[in-house]
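Sequence in, structure out.
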Amino acid sequence: MHTTGHPYSPLSPTEIVLIHRSALRLLSEMGMVVQHQRLLHSLAECGLPVDFEAERVRFPAPFVERFIAEAKKYDWEQARPSVSASAGVYHSLYHDPRSEQLIPWTEENLAFYFALANQLPHIGSVSMLGCRLPVPATLEPLYERYYCWKYGAAEGSSIYLDELCPYLLELYRVKAETVGQPIAEVFRGTVFLIPALKLGRHEAYQVDYFREHGIRVHIGGSMFSMGANAPATLVGAVTLNLAEQLALRILDWALFEAGKTPASPEASFPQLFLHTSISVLDMRTTIRPFGRPEMTVANLMTAQLARHYGAAFGGHAGLTDSMLPSVESGAQKSLSAIATLMAGGNVWLDAGLLGIDEVCSPIQLILDDELVSALKVFTHEFEISEEAIGLETILEAGPAGQYLDKPHTARYFRQEHWNPSLWNRRMLSAWQSEGALLDVDKARQLALEVQKQGRSPSAMADALEREILIIIEKAKQRITA
């Protein structure tokens, strides 16, 4: 028995049909802008109507419904719920645990943050998008790979500029040769739809450039803000997101898989996946907050739609608008993480982030590690059996009985009970006598202890580092000049 991943149905069957039909109209009547003629020709070869002059592809309703029907189904009944976490470094400031100030990143702090994330038991990985160190802005994707590979992090897969494509290709050729794997397996590159349903000229060029070299670029969807780049209503934003997600899955299939798939009426389409990142536009400040309840509700609606289609699901969750570790940050992260986990069955949490991704905090990273540990209890397979009930033990204890000395307790308590590392385990007097420390205080102490250990040695071989720096220098001379 586990408590997560079970059906939760905020939408009625009639409401699901309305959203589905509305998304089909958006795809068939409005379609998607793809600003690249060669990509458009590939889409046309798959049977999609293309207006080459307007650079627009449309997705007829019968085609979309066939895609949904024939896509490989996600088995919600057999899927096992999971909670995972990664520490992401984005366009952010660093929350220094020594001074507790928000400061620009240094290489020392970046190496420490990576090392701390890799040491925490419930943080599965760490990554950086772009480069937060003082490097030429045009070369950030190259330095992103350099510092991530050097200090044991995963690259965030930025591309940014068309001119960087040859140098990124060269970097990955060197890495592929070093690790002895095909370049297509080691390559990591992503572009995003910034406005809804539009693959812009530069993003499309980058997709096509690597596609011509047999390499797949991931195309990520929009981050919708209700009232800004999406309708102000939840149902309007969810419908637009659904249309875009379906378009992206078809686009990905048409560009990277259609030519490899046998022409068969049976199971010719890949597994469908629906993702959502929907929040409001704060009409007073015009920010796009992460910690509002609307994001959670949008996740619940999309999770139900995913079940309806037999699709996998992922929702943006476990994020906060708070600028520092606080009650606000913990409440907001839990608000979306728990609900999304219960309905979707899986949650990925980007740990350490504060302030709508503008702050990375070692203290919050440690607090989030504790939160992820607690969330995993919801996915635990609790035993339901006569032995687990312990009926004979209950009868033995009798009315008003106690269970501390029972073999049944000794046998089960470790596997049934979650034990915190930071959250309080003391009554008031004991807590006061031990320093009256809050979870934030304990997390700061741990961060400072790890920081005293010094920088971890480079994870990159000297020969690989030399080759990477030569490529970066070549790009610097040709691009920044």
